[in-house]
Amino acid sequence: MKLRDKKVFKATLAGTMTAAILTASAVTAQPQDRADAASPQTQNVILFVGDGMGAAQRDAIRLATVGEKGNLAMDAMPYVGLIHTSSTVPVTDSAASATAYASGVKTYNGAIGMDANKKSVKTIMEYAKDKGKSTGVVTTSQVTDATGAAFGAHVEDRSKQSDIALQYLTKSKIDVILGGGEDFWYPAGNPGKFQDEPAEDPSEKSKGTQGNLIDKAKSLGYSYVSNKADLQKAKGGKLLGLFSNEEMFQQKPEGEGDIYNPIVSLPEMTKKAIDTLSANKKGFFLMVEEEGTDEFAHQNNAKMTIKAGQQLDQAVQVAKDFAKKHPETLVLVLADHETGGFSIEEANAEDESGDGISKEDGPFQIVGSDHNFVVDWTTSGHTAVDVPITAMGRNAQLFTGIYENTEVFTKLKQALGIKGK
């Protein structure tokens, strides 16, 4: 990179950071009475979780998708905030973080819908059900993985995914369930729609511990689908779609079988979920997760992290299109935590600061520019940095400021007009 290009690139990043700081300052300075004025009630909530997606990931997705002057769908929202992500320890996992969002308590890593004393805590989706609303979980991970699970189940250990699946059907009674993880719905020896030990990952095979939960779902009135064509044709208010053995991608090291190509995309699943849930005149609560932004970051794989983030952004646009026609809808985009210690740097051979898994990734082209950037990493695990939240729609103003992850639950209750504990 020429000296002039380096100066331009650094100025661009500095401008981006300054704008972000000014935006955060502006939203936190809003009058308290405005932030507290939640009226009238929100009818529909669509909550997006970019697992592991910190501010730098969002910037990289933006630069690689719409360029320095463009806006992602997830960023083109009028309200912005910052969330502290700790669990009962400084660095959270997805289970404890999602439990904080869904139930408003700090808990231990690995807990699903349980407080730190392993006592069950009511979820925002369960409150929504009490108000007659429909509920849904959409994810590119297993539908019973940590993030979705915390909105619809109560177990002491996130690994009990078949228990979680059974609770979805018989306890929280989630109406729409779309994503991966068929292996936990069939007992060992019954491969279901997806073969055991597939070539792309021989470790994947049916391992359910609660019997044949697909048959259970059908007996309870769910339509079951396992491919795109059947998903598009499915009708009715209760829908279960499982589209892979486990995650809907392969999170292997770069160039070693890493694949992000779900047989049904996140935007497609999101649209179907909204179309199905919105038939309920009392409204709905939908949680949509992109898991690839976390899993690929664990592999320090920036290319696939960005690709997964682009799919998340397309799904957000689907929700925004719905919200524009239905102004009683609230759309939120946040993360459970940051993964990888992700940073954006100039392409500079003299500045390489890692090797092996943590070697710099790139360069990546900045759309609409002659410039590019590289991604550097500090860890293959989670970090404790704050994560951004963006919001639009009915009562979105509640989500400005800087606050604990547990406050997301409190603000959601306020937006939905839910009183008491």
Structural description of this entry:
The chain has 13 helices and 15 strands. 34% of the residues lie in helices and 18% in strands. It has a single domain, classed as Alkaline Phosphatase, subunit A (3-Layer(aba) Sandwich), CATH 3.40.720. The protein is globular and about 60 Å long. The chain has helices at 3-28, 32-36, 55-65, 94-103, 124-130, 146-152, 161-170, 213-219, 228-233, 266-277, 292-298, 302-325, 406-416; strands spanning 44-50, 79-84, 134-142, 176-180, 223-225, 239-242, 284-290, 329-334, 338-339, 343-345, 361-365, 372-376, 382-383, 387-393, 401-404. It has a 10-stranded mixed β-sheet, with helices on both faces. With 421 residues, it is of the alpha/beta class.
What's this model, at a glance?
The chain has 421 residues and is α/β, with parallel strands linked by helices. Helix content is 34%, strand content 18%.
Topology diagram in text:
Blueprint: H1 3-28, H2 32-36, E1 44-50, H3 55-65, E2 79-84, H4 94-103, H5 124-130, E3 134-142, H6 146-152, H7 161-170, E4 176-180, H8 213-219, E5 223-225, H9 228-233, E6 239-242, H10 266-277, E7 284-290, H11 292-298, H12 302-325, E8 329-334, E9 338-339, E10 343-345, E11 361-365, E12 372-376, E13 382-383, E14 387-393, E15 401-404, H13 406-416
Parallel strand pairs: 1-7, 1-8, 2-15, 3-4, 3-7, 4-6, 5-6
Antiparallel strand pairs: 2-14, 8-14, 9-13, 10-12, 11-12
Helix pairs in contact: 3-12, 4-6, 4-13, 10-12, 11-12
